[in-house]
Amino acid sequence: xxxxxxxxxxxxxxxxxxxxxxxxxxxxxxxxxxxxxxxxxxxxxxxxxxxxxxxxxxxxxxxxxxxxxxxxxxxxxxxx
Length: 80
Description:
Elements: H1 3-37, H2 42-79
Helix pairs in contact: 1-2
């Protein structure tokens, strides 16, 4: 495995961790608020939805450069 491939794999692993942390963080934050305000499950569901939204947007922003660089490499290979 060359360095470029390893770098891409590590970036994608980081994206996976980011998604997991966003969703778990939103869920735990919602559970904490529900415990303080006794409103179960309102804030828990809100936290899951917000965490999922943040995870989706962040994933898009992180994966876009990877896709663009891969597309550039494919174009270079076709020109050779």
